[in-house]
Amino acid sequence: MSVSNPETSRQRVITTKRVLEMKESGEKIAMLTAYDYLVARYLDAVGVDIILVGDSLGNVVQGHETTLPVTVEDMIYHAKAVKRAVRNALIVVDMPFMSYQTSIDDAVKNCGRVMKEVGVGAVKLEGGAYIADIVRHLVKIGIPVMGHLGLLPQAINKFGTYEVRATDPTEADQLLKDAAILADAGVFAIVLEKIPSELARTVTESVRVPTIGIGAGPSCDGQVLVVYDMLGLTEEFKPRFVRRYAELAQVMRDAFRKYIEDVKVGTFPGEKESY
Length: 275
Ligand code: KIV
Fold this sequence. Notes:
The protein is an alpha/beta fold.
């Protein structure tokens, strides 16, 4: 297994081909979400491999209960901001609900817009065998696709819950088949969301393409988290798969309170902050 040092490999531009090579060489893939210029700039500077402009922006940026209301226009707006910041990371854009499921033509039109108008490296689509023809066609015409299996937030109305998926043998078996079908259709990686670790290990060992886990245990070829979750900004959201690397909600509250107090008592701005 090799681990490259982000401090010395700043010039390393990540492509979908490179992501496939990382699986072959055993180098773990680090992916995080970003929705704006500043966060994307920090992520890129410290060497994250993949930046996902996730449709989770529907929840954490727009305040919706689900990702369903997110539009292609929303994704393009946020992806453009991210794109302006990124030099090295591979940018992947989530395609929102009903922008690709409806037909191959719609998928080509909407994914094509994202690739052409934003200039990112790939798109991500949720779903298994039932979207294989769409994936195959997109890949054939030059649009790299990342797959997404397990918990599918866009299918919340079908399942009614965000609980762990594929805990029963029938669903686990279907997921294994879906992974093989997606790999065969040409995806360059597959996100595995909230499934048992053992199943994620089996999928990871059985497909040629890298798996990227979120709540899928340590055996995946890479990991992804929603950036606001790992920064501790979504305080009330506490699933066991999130590791908090900072407690920014508290830092922000303290800063805002101090600012309000300083303004109210008249100590801000001071001499040094005035012209
Ligand atoms: O939208 C998103 O952020 C995602 C990740 C959770 C994988 O799909």
